[in-house]
Amino acid sequence: MTANTSPTTNRSSSPRRYRIIMYGFLAVGFVGYIAGLRVDAPLAALGIYWVGFLGFLGIWKGSSVTLYDERHEALEARATKRTFGVVGAVLILVGPALPAVMDAGYEIPTLALGALYGYAAMFGVYSVAYVAVRLRS
Questions:
Q1: Contacts of 60 (CB under 8 A, 6+ apart)
Q2: What b/e sequence results for 16-51 when a residue is b if at least 16 CB atoms lie within 10 Å of its CB, and e otherwise?
Q3: CA–CA gap between residue 80 and residue 41 (Å, rounded)
Q4: How far apart are CA 83 and CA 92, in angstroms?
Q5: What's the CA angle centered on 50, arms 48 and 51, to 5 degrees?
Q6: Over 80: is that where the pLDDT of 134 sits?
Q7: What torsion, rounded to 10 degrees, do the Cα atoms 64, 69, 73, 76 define?
Q8: Neighbours of 72 (CB within 10 A)
Q9: What would the pLDDT profile of 60-100 be if each residue is shown by its tens digit?
Q10: Half-sphere exposure at residue 80, Cβ-oriented, CA atoms within 13 angstroms
Q11: I need a labelling partner for 58 at 20 to 30 A (CA). Which of 4, 16, 88, 118 fits?
Q12: Is 44 within 8 Å of 36 (Cβ atoms)?
């Protein structure tokens, strides 16, 4: 009789390993970018950022390993729904109040206005993407 042999690699760890490397590239890109800006080397910072991003993209799109399964997709769907709920509530509550606050003499910080415009733009892009996907399916 022959003994059962176990494989030398763990199949479940391979996608995990690829994801760790993929997000490691992204983390190195972000940290390198910030460090490069701190030492006044914006060109080097941008180069490190792009190398990290391209490494992330290369593993994500170039790998033959399935990195995510239906569990990850369900988790992303739930997180997306909650995110849109919170952002939508902020936009619905704060957006209409801005003219009244400004009319009362208060100055709204540029950062807050930019964030609200960004929220509104995100919902606009989502709406266009939703309609496009809906029409194609």
A1: 22, 67
A2: eebbeebeebbebbeebbeebeeeeeeeebeebbee
A3: 36
A4: 14
A5: 65
A6: yes
A7: -80
A8: 12
A9: 888 877 877 888 889 988 998 998 899 889 888 888 888 89
A10: 9
A11: 118
A12: yes
48 and 26 in contact (C-beta within 8 Å)?
A: no
Q: Read off the amino acid at residue 1.
A: M
Residue 128 CA to residue 126 CA, distance in Å, equals 5
State the Cα–Cα distance between residues 45 and 38, nearest whole angstrom: 9
pTM of the model: 0.57
* Apex 80 CA angle, 62 and 14, nearest 5: 35
Tell me the one-letter amino acid at 5. Answer: T
